[in-house]
Design goal:
Layout lengths: L8 E3 L6 H8 L5 E3 L3 H19 L21 H4 L2 H8 L4 E4 L2 H15 L8 H12 L3 E2 L2 E3 L8 H11 L4 E4 L2 E4 H7 L11 H6 L3 H31 L9 H5 L4 H14 L15 H4 L1 H23 L7 E3 L4 E3 L7 H29 L26 H16 L22 H36 L6 H13 L10 H12 L8
Parallel strand pairs: 1-2
Antiparallel strand pairs: 3-5, 4-6, 6-7, 8-9
Helix pairs in contact: 1-5, 1-10, 4-7, 5-6, 5-10, 10-12, 10-14, 10-15, 10-17, 12-14, 14-15, 15-16, 15-17, 16-17, 17-19
Length: about 525
Amino acid sequence: MTTHQPEAVVFGERPLSIEQVVSLAQGHSATQLQSDNAFRQRIAKGAQFLDSLLDKEGVIYGVTTGYGDSCVVAVPLHQVEALPRHLYTFHGCGLGKLLDPAATRAVLAARLQSLCQGVSGVRIELLQRLQAFLDYDILPQIPEEGSVGASGDLTPLSYVAATLSGEREVLYRGAVRSSAEVHAELDWQPLTLRPKEALALMNGTAVMTGLACLAFSRADYLLKLASRITALNVVALAGNPEHFDERLFAAKPHPGQMQVAAWLRQDLAIDAPTPPLHRLQDRYSLRCAPHVLGVMADSLGLLRQFIEIELNSANDNPLIDAEAERVLHGGHFYGGHIAFAMDSLKNLVGNVADLLDRQLALLVDVRYNHGLPSNLSGAPAATAMINHGFKAVQIGASAWTAEALKNGMPASLFSRSTECHNQDKVSMGTIAARDALRSLELTEQVAAATLLAANQGVWLRLRDEPRQLPAPLAEMHRQLASDFAPVIEDRALEGELRLCLERIRAQHWRLYA
């Protein structure tokens, strides 16, 4: 069987999608740089215009002046060439964990696509080297902490600028090595960054945007998975599938809410004969699942717009309009749209965690699970009193949910005046993006716990009340059974939870068209 290989991601004038960045970040796509003469000439013209201004001794922020509040300090022409190295050098103060390889690739992709807009005043050679880093999988070792999200991701992106220049460390072929050593091995000359090039590399939103692409992809899959888990729990809890009737949702037609209800109807074969119902209304975590998940479904389109516009924009300062021969000083490095998108995503994801945690609480509780054994234990009567099934898993899920909810505080509201009050209002977009990824990590753990519990609940329900599952759920139940045996006698479930997490993060199960 042949597998479809994604097309190469082409950096240039055509916009990129979140999916292209994620495919590249996961190592599934090759990369190319647009190579036609018109594109190359447009890039070159910006650098040439900058050189002409230097010949005329024009005043350009970050080129013939210091940085930030030091913009009033003139830099003599004989020091202009040294200024870029000083910029990435004094910003080499990042701390915290290092970005993982996928995140680093996403960052490089976001920075390269921004510079390809042709208004940053950089050489084509810089774009080619950035693309070569992606092509050869040379990954700067980037500490994730130290950015306030304006003037862009200065400190983390300094590690990109420095490694392109043959300094600091990179991950290459599984080993952390000096950038200079890798350049020598490949017979490459490290770049000597030209005036404005270090600023163009660093003064932008590439870290928060790259992380936002990864977060969006995970959230999109989590939405579908939470819908599938809900369907399994309707079966396990002998719920009422009529809660998802198409006519009901036509009366309140939020598109995302209607989509989630349609997925549930599909999973539950709502138009087919159903077992006799014992109650009219299920508890909210089942009955209102489309309303909870529908908010995320309706919001993802707006978040996509914010992320993809940022991804395909010039977001450094100043911008170079070579056609009109103007230098435009502004604030496109401000990451407010990404900050809002990621703060919003934390809220949306936290609500998914809370929903699934409540469903799991119903599953394990004999007061509410409509005849399932306590804690979903599959033990026979002779050993039922010493078996506790999913009791501790539910406790763990509650802990992960609480942390995800605590993490929902919007980072963008914590702007801090920095850099001698030049950066007096900042976005905190990178912190928001890191928070969003942490919330996703925690909520995926809740999803893994609830998915295994739901599958156990379905197994128990069918054991006692045999019937044919609707086709989508029967296939999911079969796939889960190949990895996760029913819990009869107590066993430590950590290994299975971790395997389930791997499956979730690899988007292993195909969920809805």
